[in-house]
Amino acid sequence: MNTKHCTECGKTKSVEDFHRKRASRDGLQSKCKTCFKKINKNFRETNPKYQLDWQRQNPERHVQIVAKFRKADKTSKIYYIKSPNNQYYIGMTNMHLAVRFLEHKNKYNRWMKGKSVPQHPNLFESFKQLGVDNHHMGILFESDNMDRKGLRQIEKAFIKSFMDLGIALNKQI
Predict the structure, then answer these.
(1) What is the average per-residue pLDDT within 29-47?
(2) Which of 12, 30, 88, 165 is the S-S candidate for 7 at Cβ 3.0 to 4.6 Å?
(3) Cα–Cα distance measured from residue 170 to residue 173, given in angstroms and rounded to the nearest whole number
């Protein structure tokens, strides 16, 4: 069986267009990935506080899910956060970029509330002046088998290059 019928849109699609579901007879969801995406987006738009409420009601489970998500991607990355005025913050991580950016946003919000000292003052000032959501993230370097020490050396080289160009938001190398 290479195709399946979507119960939402009514189209017959490749089995790769369906998420897995162990409990179903064929091992696939009844709705295609595209339809699931639309349904989930609509739910998030009509119930914006649902996820936050769930996280507050289930803190242990939320921590387990986040931990599992973080462990899923073990590739080492040197990333940048680009401001609207073409200034760059350079960092390194083993996390998904979306999770890492969310951590930066959370630390910034804690700083704005006076609950922490800024770890990245130039980045946080850029967030404050230009808006957090106006900054974008990307990858400069990625490796599946690099130790933290080697990754740090590459990160330092990128930071120095961006500082030499006068476009770094990093305070130091």
Answers:
(1) 93
(2) 30
(3) 7
How wide is the angle at C-alpha 48 spanned by C-alphas 44 and 52, nearest 5°?
105
Q: Which tokens in the block code for residue 78? A: 């040197």
Q: What angle do CA 127, 130, 132 make, to 5 degrees?
A: 40
Identify the helix (H) or strand (E) that includes residue 71: helix 59-72
Residue, of 173 and 86, whose pLDDT is higher: 86
The H helix count followed by the E strand count for the chain is: 6, 7
For residue 7, the SS3 value is coil
Three-state DSSP state, 77: strand
Q: What is the pLDDT of residues 71-125, one digit of tens each?
A: 666 789 999 999 999 999 999 998 888 889 999 999 999 999 999 888 899 999 9
In the three-class reduction of DSSP (H, G, I as helix; E, B as strand; rest coil), residue 92 is classed as strand
Whether the model clears a pTM of 0.85, i.e. scores above it, the answer is no
- DSSP states of 136-170 as a string? EEEEEEEESS--HHHHHHHHHHHHHHHHHTT-B--
Q: Which residues contact 13 (CB under 8 A, 6 or more apart)?
A: 3, 4, 6, 32
